[in-house]
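FW: tagging you since you asked about this chain on Friday. Here's the raw sequence from the shared folder, copied in full. Didn't touch anything.
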Amino acid sequence: SPQLDAAVGELRNRMQSGGDVSAAVAALHELLAGQSVPEWRTALDALHRLPDVGERPAGYWGVSLGCGLGVPFVAAEPRVRAAVLGLNGAETSAEAAARITVPVEFLVQWDDERVPREAALALFDTLGSPDKTLHANPGGHGDVPAFELDSALRFFARHLGG
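HL: got it, structure written out here
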């Protein structure tokens, strides 16, 4: 779409010029979330029609872009009862984050070269959930430790059953 092309072009320009990319990333995430939230709701509808799934509560796991798109989805979708989010900042989805009330496990990479620590911590602070946990690990954006997957599985088992 022309809007997507323009948003990606703006992000590339800012990255090449060494400028602040926060606003361009936020605009891209907003555009993509506007498309993905209805699609994910449709996918969730289809899953709930499966006999082995039924109306079981759903969880959402998304970091980086998955967080940027997932925060609006989790905020809008009452069937999502728990979420693992992170590696993203408040400028991307602060308004939606404030509407999230389900339990959240939030990942931060302390030395993230893409998401400033202050922005990630601001997003965590903005989450409206009274049941949220911050997991901070040393390393860059792509250095999430493998044990965080085990933690996420335990988190979902606790909050979704099974």
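FW: The chain is about 55% helix and 15% strand.
HL: agreed, and The radius of gyration is 16 Å.
FW: great, closing this out.
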